[in-house]
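Supplementary Text 2. Reproducibility record for the structural model of the 354-residue chain.

All settings were left at their defaults, and a single model was retained for analysis rather than an ensemble. We include the record here because the model underlies the residue-level annotations in Supplementary Table 4.
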Amino acid sequence: MTTPQFELSDPPSDAISAIKFAPASLRLLVASWDKNVYLYDTSESGGRLLQTFQHRAPVLDVCFGDNDEDAYTTGLDWDVRRLNLSTGTQTVLSSHTAGIRSLAYSFEHSILISASWDSTLHIHHPSTPSSPPASIALPSKPFSISLTPTKLVVAMASRALHIYDLATLASASASLPQNESQPTHAIPLSIEPWQRRESSLKFMTRAVACMPNDAGYASSSIEGRVAVEWFDPSPESQARKYAFKCHRQPNEQGIDVVYPVNALAFHPVHGTFASGGGDGFVALWDGVAKRRIRQYQRYASSVSAVAFSGDGRFLAVAISPGFEDGREGGGDGVVKVFVRELGENEAKGKGMKS
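Retained model, structure tokens:
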């Protein structure tokens, strides 16, 4: 690529809800409120739209499975779908009783997890079609989920947060009896979380993202803050957790306008993380050193999603009207996806202040 950042051609026609890179290539999946999932090849400037997959309702999340041809989608049609990117075939794996906000696929355990506004998680075993999905009840409506190789973090309403052991989820849900008359019907399963926590943030959680080294996670809120926490329950480790203000811009009177932090994503190599806000900015942070690495130029509308490529060389940024300014009309051309090629040390941590 000749420029560090380019805009994808043929973007969605309505707000973007999620973007995800393939595990081993520069293919990019984009989920939109226009009821479509878009597959792009971003290996060259401008990108190339490979295919569009139509759904019955707005799509709220999307992720890849074990390879570049296997994907999963979900949204306001209440269904969890497996999507074959080669043939376009869609297979319903389970159905919730309300919209489904989040999806996550564990490569280590070969399970797919969906989190729905019906206050349940569904655990699927896509590689074993005869294994029925399991349903785990949550105390509150889930807003965001994220995985490490060993743990699942579920951020919910009422500032509740559960951390589950993935090995326990995988083994307990693998031996359920199949309901042949209703193969997509989820079977209730009682599993205690590894940890229960209360969010460090006082206002509603918007996003959660786990550290690639399996040590902890970051969460963000609608009130322009990000919290960084560690899994280790020891007092010494818990004393390290902190929260900081971000994505706040002064108005004409010099008063800070507070924007939601809509998106978080950790760099897979350096362990730093990106945040995207309703103010239209994307910033890179060193969570261990508690320092901002850099902030990119302001985008034309609210940042709705961010994602790093599997090798960490590229950062994708989706922008959509967020209505943070109170205006209903976003104008033409404010739904876009940008892909930025990162310099060798662009996302590298700065280290602790001396």
